[in-house]
Amino acid sequence: MDLSPSYMDVGRKVRLSRLLPDGRAVIFAFDHGVEHGPRDFPPQHIDPRIILSKVVEAGVDAIMMLPGMARITHDVWANRTALIVKVTSKTNLRPEAERLLQSGFGLVEDAVALGAEAVAATVYWGSPYEDQMLKQWFSIREAAERYGYPVLQLAYPRGPSIKDRYDVEIVRYGARAAAESGADLIKTYFTGSKETFSKVVEAASGIPVLMSGGPKAPTPLDFLRQVDAVMKAGGRGVVVGRNIFQHPNPAGMVRAIRAIVHEGEEPEKAVSHIG
């Protein structure tokens, strides 16, 4: 019996090892220009090359962005950090009733052409459009598998029946659904403590779980304590945007986050990297 792995299996494993060099990852999320609009960025970071240069220099393991942004900033990140291409998105310009739907925003082939290590797509578990997004998800996953690409699912519980999207029972439900739908990596909400987030990790059944950075925390130390709790709960890293690019010293924030994720530093020590 031939037990040799397929070309696709090898490609997926190689790319995952690049994204998580020691089994952990600090990923910079940079899809906010579409998801939230330019107002999310401080004036000094409206030019994407400025913020991307800072985070690349500080040593993020990967950057997650949409295909168009990856194309126009390739001179900044290429051969300096890994790329994850997000192929779904939505704007807040559309009617509010339709904001629980992620639309196609690129192709898996775009990620391949750009030299990415993975593709990413969002599923709003609990949305009235859940079925539509699942069809989209499985189409993306099928295409990614053909090219040996891992797929990161942004597993976000959102819908009219969900009163608290950060409730541990809701978040762990979404994480389990992401694992059962074939995600290779899962990005989801922080549930408030090491004890509750460990239940999310458990529900993911061995699929690496990464914390979504979310809105800017009251202080850098507050955010670093969240990162620390995630790692101590068995999480495999973070996917962070606003808590980096909305900080006056984004490179310092990256260094501090890296110190916790990759070196196991305590938050009170890691905060000194910010300066």
Short description:
This protein has 275 residues and is an alpha/beta fold. The chain has helices at 7-19, 32-35, 48-58, 67-72, 74-77, 108-114, 130-146, 168-180, 194-203, 220-232, 242-245, 250-263, 267-270; strands at residues 25-29, 62-65, 82-86, 88-89, 103-104, 118-125, 151-157, 185-188, 209-212, 237-240.
Structure overview:
- This protein has helices at 7-19, 32-35, 48-58, 67-72, 74-77, 108-114, 130-146, 168-180, 194-203, 220-232, 242-245, 250-263, 267-270; strands at 25-29, 62-65, 82-86, 88-89, 103-104, 118-125, 151-157, 185-188, 209-212, 237-240.
- With 275 residues, the chain is an alpha/beta fold.
- It has a single domain (7-273), classed as TIM Barrel.
- The strands form two sheets. An eight-stranded parallel barrel has the order 1-2-3-6-7-8-9-10, surrounded by six helices. A two-stranded antiparallel ribbon has the order 4-5.
- α10 packs parallel to α12.
- The N and C termini lie far apart (58 Å).
- The mean pLDDT is 97.
Instruction: Give the percentage of residues in beta strands.
Output: 15-25%
How many alpha or pi helices? 13
State the end-to-end CA separation. 58 Å
Main sheet strand line-up: 1-2-3-6-7-8-9-10
Task: Please estimate the helix content.
Answer: 40-55%
Averaged pLDDT: 97
SSE pattern, N- to C-terminal: HEHHEHHEEEHEHEHEHEHEHHH
The dominant shape is globular
Q: How does the helix and strand content classify structurally?
A: alpha/beta
Low-pLDDT segments: none
| Biggest beta sheet attributes | 8 strands, parallel, barrel
- The domain count comes to 1
The appropriate CATH architecture is Alpha-Beta Barrel
CATH class: Alpha Beta
| CATH H-level homologous superfamily name | Aldolase class I
Number of strands: 10
Q: Rg to the nearest angstrom?
A: 18 Å
CATH fold-type name: TIM Barrel
